[in-house]
């Protein structure tokens, strides 16, 4: 299940030490201090390197514990409780910051994937190639939906799918192989083949390509 992080950007708290807005970060899978879970999927953390808590924390921890660390201010969503997190470097948690623009972009993509999956139910009956191609070419889509879409290429029997599939870079080579098998069956069913020189579709019995004029 995809997490919709947008709700966490509605009321972002302010750091009481520097008056800067806290950063919305993905919570680590375990609590750094006691090994327990945070009970939240995001944390609000002050990542301002000029925050007085962070700046002064280095000397305080060195004096108290004898090692190099500092503090970051943190709050959990829907909680006013103040928490101090010990960090060992300036970069801690900066790689976990959630980007709102990326979240919104991903949500749009996910909604389009859901719609395409729903449209597969009538794709063969309507000879509708659009949701099939959308899923096949979406590298972020679930593999189950993509495999189902590939299985519909032959029943829909539309040769216009070939160019887009041939020009797509598949991260999962097994999906590429399944597409190649489906294309082979499509070509055979339509008495076509691909010219080995220009890749245009020509009659399966052709001896010369009608496009590049090369002998086959």
Write the layout of secondary structure elements.
Blueprint: E1 23-26, E2 42-45, H1 52-65, E3 70-75, E4 83-87, H2 100-119, H3 123-126, H4 130-137, H5 143-150, H6 153-156, H7 161-166, H8 173-189, E5 192-194, E6 201-203
Antiparallel strand pairs: 1-2, 2-3, 3-4, 5-6
Helix pairs in contact: 2-4, 4-5
Structure explained in plain terms:
There is one protein chain. This protein has helices at residues 52-65, 100-119, 123-126, 130-137, 143-150, 153-156, 161-166, 173-189, and strands spanning 23-26, 42-45, 70-75, 83-87, 192-194, 201-203. It has 216 residues and is of the alpha+beta class. It has two domains: 5-96, no CATH class; 100-203, no CATH class. The strands form two sheets. Strands 1-2-3-4 form a four-stranded antiparallel β-sheet. A two-stranded antiparallel sheet has the order 5-6.
Q: Gap between N and C termini, in Å?
A: 51 Å
Specify the helix fraction band.
25-40%
Major beta-sheet overview: 4 strands, antiparallel
How many domains make up the 3D coordinates? 2
Helix/strand order: EEHEEHHHHHHHEE
SS class: alpha+beta
Rounded to an integer, what's the Rg over CA atoms?
A: 27 Å
Q: Per DSSP, what share of the residues sits in E-state strands of 2 or more residues?
A: 5-15%
Strand order of the largest sheet: 1-2-3-4
Question: What does this entry show, briefly?
Answer:
This protein is of the alpha+beta class and 216 residues long.
Attribute tags:
216 residues, alpha+beta, 2 domains, two-stranded antiparallel ribbon, elongated
């Amino acid at each position: 299940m995809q997490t919709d992080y947008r709700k966490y950007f509605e009321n972002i708290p302010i750091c009481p030490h520097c008056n800067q807005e806290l950063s919305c970060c993905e919570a680590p899978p375990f609590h750094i201090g006691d090994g327990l879970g945070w009970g939240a999927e995001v944390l609000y953390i002050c990542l301002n390197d000029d925050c007085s808590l962070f700046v002064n924390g280095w000397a305080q921890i060195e004096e108290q514990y004898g090692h190099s660390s500092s503090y970051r201010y943190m709050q959990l969503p829907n909680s006013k409780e103040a928490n101090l997190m010990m960090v060992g470097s300036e970069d801690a948690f900066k790689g976990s910051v959630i980007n709102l623009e990326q979240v919104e972009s991903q949500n749009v993509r996910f909604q389009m994937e859901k719609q395409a999956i729903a449209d597969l139910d009538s794709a063969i009956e309507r000879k509708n190639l659009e949701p099939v191609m959308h899923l096949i070419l979406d590298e972020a889509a679930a593999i189950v939906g993509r495999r189902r879409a590939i299985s519909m290429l032959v029943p829909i029997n539309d040769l216009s799918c070939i160019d887009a599939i041939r020009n797509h870079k598949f991260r999962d080579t097994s999906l590429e192989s399944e597409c190649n098998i489906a294309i082979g069956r499509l070509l055979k069913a339509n008495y076509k083949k691909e010219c080995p020189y220009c890749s245009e579709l020509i009659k399966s019995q052709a001896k010369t390509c009608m496009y590049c004029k090369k002998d086959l």
